[in-house]
């Protein structure tokens, strides 16, 4: 089976004044379809840098990255944008919704350049919002929504093109703990119910506990990669779910 993500020796340097910052120091990881992976580690350890490369928002200085078997380095900027729009949904800590624009229009946005009809755009955006329990909120602007609702709109937008990979960089970082758990159970349902591959960055142990696998970053390296019980996965009443996934 083709891995969704395969990186080999990924490095990323940034210039800061006269010094070079080694944000990533050789990251080699494989992530299979349907995995739910949490990335943890101290501030500045390279988590967002890694996520931005996975999301084709940035390019590595060295090393290779295969997304769904495709070598991303060999692609033009347009091809990368195309790949990003079809295969990846991205969710951020700050929601990144467009203000003074309805929830519906926010979710329609990724569809606009897809050559599908206006009516079909609206139908798909409504379907995506419905799925996130926001059917009654389609006409609301972000400022008229709670933090949890805004993040649900952002998730609806990330999923509207039916990507196979969802990247979430501290999606609960701006939410209270109860709302954070609501968002996490949505991600869990998408992963367990629909086989969506989820990679999430978090600082919170109870958020990381939703994942099947936890990668710990330190100084741009993966210093631990733990799966299952060792990752601190909660014991579920319905037993191990790894084998029963679609
Ligand atoms: N665009 C940039 N220019 C210069 N340095 C950068 C840039 N982006 C990140 N860095 C540096 O690279 C290192 C890794 O940053 P990164 O944002 O990936 O960390 P992080 O693990 O996501 O931290 P946090 O938990 O605070 O979000 C840091 O030293 C950071 O200052
Ligand atoms: Mg970060």
CATH architecture of the domain at 5-99 and 163-235: 3-Layer(aba) Sandwich
Strand order of the largest sheet: 7-8-9-4-10-11
Spell the H/E element sequence: EEEEHEEHEHHHEHEHEE
Q: What is the count of β-strands?
A: 11
Determine the strand fraction and express it as a percent band: 25-35%
Mean pLDDT equals 92
Bound molecules: adenosine-5'-triphosphate, magnesium ion
Helix content: 25-40%
The CATH homologous superfamily of the domain at 5-99 and 163-235: P-loop containing nucleotide triphosphate hydrolases
Number of helices: 7
Integer-rounded radius of gyration: 18 Å
Main beta sheet strand tally, sense and closure: 6 strands, mixed
CATH hierarchy, class of the domain at 5-99 and 163-235: Alpha Beta
The poorly predicted ranges are: 235-246
Straight-line distance between termini: 14 Å
CATH third-level topology of the domain at 5-99 and 163-235: Rossmann fold
